[in-house]
Amino acid sequence: MKSLALLLCLAQLWGCHAAPHIPGLVYRELDCDDPETEQAALVAVDYINNHVLQGYKHTLNQIDKVKVWPRRPMGEVFELELDLLETTCYIRDPTPVENCTVRQLMEHAVEGDCDFQVLKQDGQFTVLFAKCDSSPDSAEDVLKVCPQCPLLAPLNDTKVVHAVEVALTAFNTQSNGSYFQLVEVSRAQLVPLPPSTYVEFAVAATDCVAAEVTDPAKCNLLAEKQYGFCKATLTEKVGGEDVAVTCTVFQTQPVLPQPQPDGTEASPVADSAVPAPPPADPPAAALVVGPVVVAAPQAPLPGHRTHYDLRHSFMGVASVESASGEAFHVGKVPNVAQPSVPVTAGPVVRPCPGRIRHFKI
Predict the structure, then answer these.
(1) Pick from 315, 314, 321: which is nearest to 290 by CA?
(2) Same domain, yes or no: 298 and 215
């Protein structure tokens, strides 16, 4: 009996040594200021600026976190948390973002907080997932820096709406070319002394001539969009008001044909800034890893909002499936581990968050 028990113990011991050891997959933790991390972050910021259709361009301020996951069958996925800052460049302004001025604290700065998943494969970076929101600096912090500085005002404030209407009318009156229509009110501040309203707003050219317009409702936006961006101050005076307005009109955006799965070109799309929807049920060979902009739920924007929140553009932008059959889903980390195999943490945590490029809100 003792011999049998000894034999069973030896058999179990042999089985333990013979069982293969499958190590858990490991993610890399890079330094937040590592050049590779920064390269992935800049690709992510470019993605934001190329897909947001309202508001202002944003620039990288700080990299908060980074994890790099292996991805089957090849490549790596950078999981990033980034802090962005709003610049003074309107989103359709062709000025490269690196040449745009960051909006300063005394101007009531706006910060963006974003989560990204960026694929690196064959040395190329591709955004797989983006989720952002943005918020202005607190009124208390602004007033600490500049006690007399005006704060952001609700974009539907009656004084703001009036200032935009007066400024746009003044601009069209002075124009020798197209009649421009309002696209959006982008920013507004109520200045106490002298009593005035400062506004920034976007416009677009129509098929009407400004000097000949009698009914603006009959004017239509041009097929080849031409946008402009205006800054104006309406100052209250005894017995009246004065308006000062300057507008920068950007070059016409050409109508670009959209490629089709069969290689032919479809009819041109008027606004090239709006991405074309993916083809329905594409063949397996056409499935590639790449960003697909999905429309965020169109909840009505709050009437009292003071800025354009990135949340309304990036509530979750996910990729299509890759040809390998692996998919990335909104709100989930990449599936990098085999079933029943634990994912283990990487080596010693490296310095994060990274350096602040401008200022902290």
Answers:
(1) 321
(2) no
Look-up of token digits 């400004």 = 210
Do 143 and 162 fall into the same domain? no
Q: What are phi and psi of 350, to 5 degrees?
A: -95, 170
Phi, psi of 206 (to 5 degrees): -115, 180
Displacement of CA 315 from its chain's centroid (Å)? 10
How many residues comprise the chain? 361
Total domains in the chain come to 2
Statement to judge: residues 65 and 159 lie in one domain: no
Neighbours of 240 (CB within 10 A): 7
Least confident of 29-38, 69-78, 165-174, 258-267: 258-267
Question: What is the pTM for the complete model shown?
Answer: 0.75
The residue whose two tokens read 């924007």 is: 301
Round to whole Å and give the CA distance between 136 and 109.
Answer: 6
Residue type, 8: L
Closest alpha carbon to 107 in 244, 307, 357, 313: 307
Q: Average pLDDT for residues 219-228, to the nearest whole number?
A: 94
Give Cα separations from 261 to 24, 242, 294, 341 (angstroms).
40, 56, 19, 39
- pLDDT confidence of 156, banded at 50, 70, 90? very high
Task: Please indicate, yes or no, whether residues 115 and 191 belong to a single structural domain of this protein.
Answer: no
Kindly report the number of other CB atoms within 10 A of residue 138's CB atom: 12
Query: What per-residue confidence (pLDDT) applies to 287?
Result: 24
> In sequence order, which residues have a C-beta less than 8 Å from that of residue 67 and are 6 or more positions away?
27, 28, 29, 78, 79, 346
Q: Is residue 69 part of a domain?
A: yes
Q: Distance (Å, rounded) from C-alpha 311 to C-alpha 308?
A: 9
